[in-house]
Write a structure and sequence with these properties.
Blueprint (H helix, E strand, L loop, with lengths): L1 H5 L13 E3 L5 E3 L5 H6 L3 E3 L8 H7 L3 E3 L11 E3 L1
Parallel strand pairs: 3-4, 4-5
Antiparallel strand pairs: 1-2
Length: 83
């Protein structure tokens, strides 16, 4: 998160279990609602934790680009990068 912020990027996150995060550099973030608007507004959505409560189809429908670090999305597509 800190690297993206230091390079001028805007970072937000959603986690149903962790409501706020403070990074080593002192940045503080508050979990946002996982809304269609928030997903569509993001240049890239990065899936880092595979919570069973995440609606993967909803995320895919509304996100422009997804980087899936946890293999939450079974089948990749033009807008899904699987690592």
């Amino acid at each position: 998160m800190d690297t993206v912020v230091h390079k001028g990027g805007t970072v937000s996150y959603h986690d149903p279990y962790i409501s706020n995060v403070k990074t080593n550099d002192g940045s503080e973030f508050i979990s946002v609602d996982l809304s269609a608007e928030a997903l569509a507004k993001a240049d890239c959505v990065v899936l880092t934790t595979n919570h069973s409560g995440f609606d993967v189809e909803y995320i895919q429908k509304h996100a422009i680009l997804i980087v899936d670090l946890r293999n939450m999305i079974e089948v990749g597509s033009r807008k899904v990068v699987k690592l």
